[in-house]
Amino acid sequence: MSVFRYAAVVLAVGSLAGVIYAVASGAGQSSVTAQRFVNLQEGAKPHEGFRRAHAKGFCVAGEFLSNGKLAPYSTAQVFQPGKTGFVGRMSIAGTNPTAPDLRSPVRSLALNLGQGDADGWRTAMNTPPVMAVGTPEAFYEQLSALAPDPATGQRNPERIQAFFASHPETQAFLAWQKSYVPTQSLATERYHSINAFYLLGPKGQRQAVRWAAEPAPDTPAQPLTALNPDDPDALQAEFLARVKQAPAVFDLIFTLADPTDNENDPTVPWPESRPTVVAGQLLIRAAQPETKGQCKDINFDPLVLPTGMAATDDPILRARSAAYAESYRRRARESL
Amino acid sequence: MTHHTEMHIMSQADVYSLPARILHWAMALLLFSLLLAGLAMVQSLQTWHLTLLTAHKAMGVLALLLVVVRLAVRLTHTPPALPDNLSAAQKHAAHGTQVLLYVAMFAMPITGLLMQGAAGRPVSVFGLFTVPALLPVDLRTYGLLRELHGWGAWGLIALVLLHITAALHHGLVKRDKVLRSML
Predict the structure, then answer these.
(1) pLDDT (tens digit, 9 = 90+) per residue, B112-139?
(2) Distance from CA of B108 to the nearest CA of A (A)
(3) How do residues A79-100 score in pLDDT, each as one tens digit?
(4) Measured between beta carbons, which residues in chain A are less than 8 angstroms from residue B164?
(5) Nearest residue to A114 via CA among A84, A71, A80
(6) pTM of the complete model
(7) What are phi and psi for residue A214, nearest 5 degrees?
(8) Cβ–Cβ of B120/A120 closer than 8 Å?
(9) Cβ–Cβ of B120/A298 closer than 8 Å?
(10) Strands (DSSP E) along chain A, which ranges?
(11) Closest Cα of chain A to B62: distance in Å?
(12) Helix (H, G, I), strand (E, B) or coil at A209
């Protein structure tokens, strides 16, 4: 009889262990997990110690001067009239930390406003105004299609074409890509939130928004010194020199969605006619190589939001947190 | 009716105090949920990730508060003695497992909170209050604490499974008073 009693113990503990094992090995997950995603990004030979996306960049620091015009839409401290300091990072897309600045198709500005505050706000903005695709699974497909063929080491144009042909939601992104002319300075680019977020107002109201950092109107469009096309760090050198002379200034402009806009779809731009609010100015007063600045240790997870802001259900936005965390964990482990 | 002699009449000294029993079962449920949520959320690219992450952090703070109370209850209430027929080695093993469980119950929320501090991310508890960053932002510190938190979770899982196996062995096979002391 005692054999049944032993069996009951084994069955009970085995079931619990089975549930834990199932969850740990991805039960209930989509086919694309954070680990699979980052594995694809880093490829066969990861650049250890570096971010798995936007590996090359440098640190910036400055402050956001809020004019208070966004305060009726959001209770966030950062949007009340006044000043909030930030540490940020300018970067180029790609996984190679030594890639040439001028070759990258995408440039980025990431900010951590109110460092260490309970109401800190992180944003990771890119030059494209929209995503090519709207789900992490499609994004995984996109990156797979764009990855070099392991046999040839080259990108496969047929695969790329097949991907875009089977994903009509990529049209707005492709149109942007066609019209985009890289500027001669990181200080003269427009950086977009891409995903939409909610502003939570003092009367409990909720407004879907996207935002962009746009060069202040009086920003000199010409680079300070002519860019040397052979210098892999051409953009970084120009920006460091520029900031030494005067702060780089961006207007932080919020676009308010209409009820007809789908805030959960990052592939569709909102009409130009949507109202905008200039919330204030970003003043970048200092720039330093990443080894010397404070930005290296920061994971610019755009889901770190202050009270008065909230995430939409945009599947790409929601996926960013876990993917960023996996990349952060890997480079943190490699730093030990 | 030989069976009758095995059925102990449970006296008060054979049972954990009521606060100890309530804390034990509440925390069992909480820790099991926290472990499963942790294992799921580190992989998830789904829209529920943020909700689960926020809940995991807030519930982790709750678990830390509960284990402090629990340790206080444990130190102020005498636990029931183990059955006399256990060998000294078995008694040591039982005691050792309990000590390790307490260590893990403290270590998990503490490494979790500290690693959030090292990542510069103060932990908000249901929007009621925020645990300030307890450490300066530092990638290496984060790396160490993040790995400890991850391995700690597997350590806690192993201890919990061992603990449940032993408890069920006492309750179903040996049928002594050990399992009933916590019911």
Answers:
(1) 999 999 999 989 998 899 998 889 999 9
(2) 17
(3) 999 999 999 999 999 989 999 9
(4) 12-13, 16
(5) A84
(6) 0.92
(7) -115, 140
(8) yes
(9) yes
(10) 56-66, 82-92, 107-113, 121-126, 191-192, 197-200, 206-215, 248-256, 276-289, 309-311
(11) 18
(12) strand
